[in-house]
Records
---
Amino acid sequence: MKKSVHGKHNRGSMIAASAQNMNMLLREQKRLKKLLHAINNAAVMLLTAEADEFETVLRENMGIMANAVDADRVYIWKNHTVNGKLYCTQLYEWSEGAEPQQNNEYTIDIAYDENIPGWEDKFIRGQCVNCLVRNMSPEEQAQLSPQGIISILVLPVYLRDKLWGFVGFDDCHKERLFTPEEESILRSGSLLIANALLRNDMTQELAMTLEKAQTASQAKSDFLSNMSHEIRTPLNAITGMTAIGKSTTDLNKKDYAFERIESASSHLLGVINDILDMSKIESGKFDLSLEEFSFEKMMLRIINVVNSKITDMRQNLKIFIDRDIPEYLIGDDQRLAQVIVNLVGNAVKFTPEEGSIRIGTFFLGEENGICSIKMTVTDTGIGISPEQQSKLFKSFQQAESSTTRKFGGTGLGLVICKNIVEMMGGNIWIESELGKGSTFCFTVQLKRSDMDKRLLTGYGIDWSNVNILMSDTDMDTMAFYKKISTEFGARCDTVSNGKDALRLIEQGIDYDICFIGGELPDISRPELVRAIREKHSAHQRGAVVAMFVDAYNYDKSEKDAKTAGVDTLVNKPYVPLNVINTVNDILGINNRKTEPAADDADITFEGCCVLLAEDVDINREIITAILEPAHIEIDYAENGAEAVRMFSEVPEKYDMVFMDIQMPVMDGYEAARNIRALESEKAKTVPIIAMTANVFKEDVDNCIDAGMNGHVGKPVDAAEVLSRVKTYYNPVPQLAESKSA
């Protein structure tokens, strides 16, 4: 009986245990089904999510997955490599019942080998990290424990056969190992999330690319419209003034028409040059030509170029040249000057009449013969807002569209400047506030010349025992004068008002030269001149008084100055060479190294015979008009084949060949090669100069490769053409009087 009862008890226990196991299995199946349902839900939601709601949907699904496996935190990490070393950074996180860890020191730029050793190897083998944190390495514990993690499951994610990153699940309340079934389902879910992220990134990238393309297309459309305006405006002036000039018999009116045609042609050429430069930049063919050049002479050329526009606007130009900048440098001075002229041209446009423009040049230092130089162009113009500044150095854009309508311009100048500056190892930027003017700054790296010529600095002159007084309100100007004067041994006192100037004279200082710069606050310049004359006549032998004047009011200043007793007028802006030459002239020191060359207009090339190969009638007329006044004989060929024939028949007749490139029958390249191939000795040495509208560097290189000696770009400049003749043919000087006779 007892035995029977005991058997019944065992059978009951087994049934109960079986029922319990069945319930656990059913619960596990239900939990896994819930997890699968969560993954399926995530797939649908992520695939249908709009771009602007993607992150919200992603975090929502991360929460669903976390709840399905009873996790406190879910996160997505992406890999990146720095210097060959693998790192990972957390992109997204969902947490509930655990402290968020997004964007802290434990989730940004974490090195695999230092912080989570062994994970990279496991992931490469396709394995997961499924552990209790207390059983992990010290490095892993140091990374995970501060985040409150007790148990962790990390699943590698591969995209396009590359380890993209991982998805992790944290339990911050209990120790547990995630089951193999959970691991398998969550791995699929993690891959789904990573693919959704990739898809979203591609969608956003596509949208951004499309937007950029549309913006670029619109910018180029606006640019083409602007170019049509910029090209047609001077063309209209050229054709209109041509009609006026032809129809009038008034010589003054004809001269006026010619001046306007010249001005419009110059503007049109500038527009075309901008377009060509931009074309070179976009095709990667924009190059620098490195040559030795004088920095100060370059600055003087720039002043000569911009001075007329500044004079027309009655603006005040100031320039500061740092005397520590080496006198001679190696670089592309033409391109460097192009940058400064462009920046000054913009300053002139956007600065009102009687405003100020200042050019500054500063020596930043030298390393291994490479000099760092900073240049600035500051104006008192309209200024530029931060929003407008962001567009300044972008292709085909100006600060705002109304700028083109109001001030003109291609919108390419600053882009070209940026490329030139960066090619010279520098950078360019703007400092500006709307309504308060602008300062454009840029730096360049230029090599110091090996030869210390010291021509401009007045090497060898001696100003010892010379006393100079300089009056001006600009502190930089006075410091500049003092530095130059003391370089050559002179004493230079500087004052910022008339009272101090007269006080120094009354003290009995025997000044040789009194420079009067800008207007002083307490006395007019003519009054100061008269007062200086009176003081000197009472105490000293008398000083030479020199007054600096702006070009735009030179005539008025000259009249006032002569009345007041000024000895000499000096044109602004202040540059070292002007100062040195003025002082030397006053002291009677001749520091000229060479006599100035005779003007090209006063040179003839008697006996010189040129072969001109050119197929366009008007181009032949232009070259003839340049060469004939210099007594040059010209023979004409209308294509390359005819040029070769004419030269081969009488090679000794020709001293030079000007060769167009694009001609019928035979182009200029082939013609040059055929001339060089002739048996005549003269054919090997005769100078052949390309004269063509093909002006890119590769065009110049092609001319040289074809055997030519040089290149003149169209539209031709008369001075450049005559300069080429002068280079290859010894001119016979002839006085202007004999010419006129």
---
Amino acid sequence: MLGKRLINSNSAAGATCTTDTLQILGDTSCVAYYKMSDATDESGNYDGTPTNVDFNVAGKFGNAGSFNGTSSKINTSYIQTGQVYSTSFWGKGFSAASSVLRDTPAAGGANTFMDIATGANGQVILAGNAALDPLNTPSADWTHYAIVLDGTNATIFTNGTQTATRTYTAKTGNNGTPVHIMSNGAYSAGFGSGKIDQIRIFNKAITSTEVTTLYNEVQCVPTIVPTDYFEPVIYTGNGSTQSITSLDFQPDLTWVKTRSLQSSHVLRSTGMDSTYTLASNSTAALNTAQLTGGRLQLDSNGFTVRDISGNGYGTNGSSTTQVAWNWKAGGADVLNQEGTIDSQVSASVDSGFSIVKHTAPSSEQNYTIGHGLSQKPDMVILKGLDSASGWFVWHKDLSQESYYLYLNGSFGESDLTQDTRIWGQQSFTDSVISTRSNYTTQLNQDYIAYCFHSVEGMSRVNSYVGTGASGNSIVTGFRPAYVMIKRTDTSGHSWLIYDNKRDPSNPVGKILYANTNQVENPVGNIMNFLSNGFELITTNTSHNANGDTYIFMAFAEENVQPEPELANSFNTVTYTGNGGTQSIDTGFKPDLVWFKERNGTNAHQLYDTVRGDDFALYSNLTDAEFNYSTHPSGDLSPTFLSNGFQTPSVTNNGINRNTGTYVAWCWKASNDSTINQDGSITSIVSSNPASGFSVVKWTGSGADATIGHGISTPELIIAKRTDSTGNWAVQAPSIGNGYLLLNSTIAYQGADPSVWNNTAPTSDIFTTAGGSGEFFNTGNFIAYCFTSIAGYQKVGSYSGNQSLNTANQINFGFTPGFVLIKNTTNANSQWMLFDSVRTNGMALYANQANTEADYSTALLLSSQGLEFKSTNINVNQSGATYIYLAIKAN
């Protein structure tokens, strides 16, 4: 267990782990429960049918449903039949005058029992002929709502507190219309936008105490170590026999692919004779290896591979590079009699994976097979063992339940005529899958099925819609170790496989194709694996075409990175360039490094881990970011290391010119970037709340927007468009919500709302203005956010004409190691950079490429703050207002 990620119940003190519990109130009153990781009803009775709902977003608990306000909805089969009931749910960002939970059968809503909607400002109300509004306005944060009807009165609770009640006029009945989530259902008006999570419907009027129970609910996830059930392995073939013993389990399915040669995939699993394998790119039956022990043997802590030359199936060719993806099911097969025919099943209920072997009936018929899992699979891969046949794939998010894909082909989703449907005209259930003999399965022959369903923190089997733009973020709830993607709406797109062993750092882009024997394709820049999901940074149509549908299967990696601490969060280092490679120790792995040549006029260069350490920005220029790894002279980008950074082997004058003297200011953010959906636009955030620093990346929408930042309320934000020319915009709320420009000497523009929309940041988000200007319109952006941390970091302002020759005239409460200062009143002033590693009083200008200048007669860093030596315009002009960022010295 040491060094592993244990997924367990995150129960708060005194709270009960309940999010997996249908009957949370301890009785049988909960009749429907939608956890909103998909449209499943946990009672098993009223599964919904989603339309254009995005379930790949972060919810109050795990994933949630996000609705677009124009076409998104879930149609359920639940029918409310009386005026005594209660509902409970979490909501965020609801639009005004729209639907939440409604069974409205026709325009006007006269015949309805459940009519929960939103009011004029987005607050949840009970609508219909006796509207009931709560007494408070909605929050941009997740808010809990409970609506209780007891046959006479209706009451609304918001975040556990009663906010409205009144006598409620009974309705005349809903004529059997089912409840719809975020739409009016029977007609097209009333679509709601926003996010909703944890929907429960009760057949009684719950009490205020029970509302409190619901409001205090905490998340439950399985107690499971992901790498006890799934792990990729890479190795080099030796041309003979070797055992790979790095796993902590005996795999029940090992899937091997040669990366460096054209060679078929090799799959060996429980349910196959030890000398046989299958190939995912081939319709061939079980392939026997004429070699003692076979080509792939499953062992107690891994697997053994043997070289077999000349037959196109590679597991251990001499000097070949190999990858193996390994799953644990339940060990030896167990007889399962839950279907209409018996099956042999190896199942892991905990991890949601089973291997099912059965023999097809001797006559043509529809039949069912027990799969051994605790819930309906989200994806099933079915293959014949005795004769050539396709690899049939069923996935819950194909257009219809009867549709299928071929794992061994690049075809889009397909259907067959009604009388020969592959899946036997019967629904999959919590206990069985279904198929049809003499079409899908040949009579009297053996078949194997691999069944998967999502497990929070372990796996995610779902779908997403492409955006056609870099930055499409898919929330899984964990950092992936493996992702397989397939475009479903058209043919010509392969099954694409990525993992964290072939790509141990971002960006991820080494493709293998489940349906071909092709070598690994090192495309690069396809996606980023993040702490809670993956971000598509490509517009490639096999991954992210606008409006098109993709299914995916993802599994979690082993380790969760620890939360960053205040120690080792910032450091200043100086060094002399040598024209080539050298390692510079900063004491930690940095997430932002700001380089400046001190004895030359090369531009400032800023690199960060969120954009990638190949991409430079220049604080004194408006240029777009530049990829120094693709420079015509060679890779000129630095490499971030576990304890610092390494300069490139080729000269980059801004980093490692021979005899150049350099300073590098280095910040630590988080150990892993996160998909942040606190704002109206999804952002990618690497944050260090302990030190009050975050790096935020997002794509502008062209309209006013809010952006999640990951720390407490920022007091300084420095932002830049990265994919095009544009100024560096600065917000300093201590002086107002106008703007400054980091790359310019201009004074504070206080009356201009075109950058920050005249809106102060909050504890969750900052606000940007859209429109036709250069700031925060369409395009890609980065922001560096700072807030004060007592005893470590101070963001603030002061007035000029400070007393001279007095130490700590501006007192930070700590010895400063770095100080950024700007006169916001005078348009001819510089952005001043001081630190305690260079000689005290030596300054650089963030807005200019000048060599460092001696300001020791104007300003010195003192034991607890600043000591002014003159009334210099850049630091102490009478009547001027200055902003500053100060960070404690190491």
